[in-house]
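# step 3/5: fold
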Amino acid sequence: MVAAAQAFDPRKARRALIGSFVGTALEWYDFFLFGTTAAIVFAPLFFHAEDPATRTIQAFLTFGVGFLGRPLGALVFGHFGDRLGRKGILIVTIVMMGSASALIGVLPTYATAGIVAPILLGILRFVQGVATGGEWGGATLMAVESAPPAKRGLYGAVVQLGSPAGTLLSAGIVAAVVALTGEQFLAWGWRIPYLLSIVLVAIGVWLRLAVDETPDYQAAAVAAPDIHQQIPVVHLFIRIPGRLLVGICTYLFGNAGFFMLTTFMISYVTATLGLPSTVILAAISWGAVAEAIAVLIAGKLSDRTTPPLMVVIGYVIAVVVAFPIFWLVDTRNTALITLALVLGLGFASVAYAAVGSTLTQLFPIRLRYSAIALSANIAGIVAGFMPALAVWVLTVTNNSSTGPATLLFLIAAISLVGSILARRMIMADQRDGLQGGEPIPTGARGSGQAS
């Protein structure tokens, strides 16, 4: 590990961690809210197909449009995040996301505006995707690059808590609004969670304005003054294209698996199994609690072992539980459905805790924002259309859960292979005194411990 270029400030590190976590949680709230309401709100209100299954597929395809915007956001925000720093970009992303969500809350439905309604919904979903494309990578770097060297795994895991926090917040608010508005939920109640984004954005911006630029980025800028003139993505594709592919595979389950277990599962439990939406929303909420606990424990363990090893272990668990999750849900028993989501969002999220710290080690400082943002968001293209694909597979297999379970298993297996390769690359770097496959800039801090 390379010595720090400047004295470590615990207060600034904690401030960076809180700003990253809260901002990410609020941004994921907006993004997950769309998935939570896709099947139960957008399918009947914004699409006009006579077949309910077709309307659901159309709603999920619109959900997937957000993931098409994510690589664009990764390219744009990653470029400026690597050239100009992390802080300013994170303020832009949260404002963009919240504004798009609030506008969704005032959209006309198909009954009022016809085909214009789903078009506007798709455009705003795309804007959400662009914003998300720059969010996760920047927030992860803000926390990990500001962390004490011995706690980078834990700090990276705390940022990942933004996912279950956002899930819990979106599912909880939707469930509460359903209970309060009753039959009026589809008439106007569904708009309330989206309009709340205005308040949440103000909180996120206030927190992020108080955060300083990361020590790693400052040190790299001093060691390599030409960093502001570089085009990071060009260097990424020319110098280390293999690492980007490994990064994409390593992150895949974190996106695709999650949306299989939330967005698709809401549709499966309500439309296929015929159970009330409150059953699956409550199960997802408990699963999010389990995910938060698992992420914290795995984050601490990753500092005692290594983040790459923890990711490999997590994906082994995900492979093992893929089929049992659906077997439990198929019982239609509320307690067993909850157990299934605890297994899926909890135990299968062990890898998610350490994936941010692992990808930070996989790439050099001067390319990190672009690299980890592209890794997550190119994987997100697959993830975004996974619910629609799962519904299609379900229909062609006569509503058997074997098809969706097989998809979940394959996603986990691909990420397991990617994580094994990532760990080997990081171990080779540390053996050869490299960082992300390149020489470490003089005076820059180390990116983690031996693997």
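# step 4/5: annotate
The CA atoms of residues 137 and 270 lie 34 Å apart.
# step 5/5: archive (pending)
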